[in-house]
Amino acid sequence: METITSSAGLKAAIQRLELEKSVNGQLLREQFSYTWTRFKPINLIRDSIHTITSSPNILEDILGATMGLVTGFVTKKIVVQGSGNILRKLLGSVLQVGVTTAVAQHPDAVASAGQYIFKKAVNKLRKRQARKMPAE
User: Fold this and answer.
1) Residue 128 and residue 68 share a domain
2) What's the pLDDT tens digit per position in 11-32?
3) Which of 76, 72, 75 has the alpha carbon at shortest distance from 107?
């Protein structure tokens, strides 16, 4: 900063600082207004909904997470089977978390494995029915 040696220089420096204060004050008011508007609950909800609906894979993500939760829950029910044993309940909870995580992270692999198992079961049933039917 320069040294002020005269009253004219002092007045000029004061005017510069007042102008700078005015500009900074206006910028601060504009930023506050923008921030206030952005953080209104309706705007937060609207922006969140827009973000969710603009995601291209939202349906697959929800379906994968739901499938993971359901398979984890079913796995725990199968392992625990109403048992009062604490170790069995603990094992069921650990398996539930593991299965839920694995299925939620790889829903395509689980879906293709399920389709494969379904096709094999249907083919096996058809073969059984074909053997039971008398030759015409």
Assistant:
1) yes
2) 999 999 999 999 999 999 999 9
3) 72
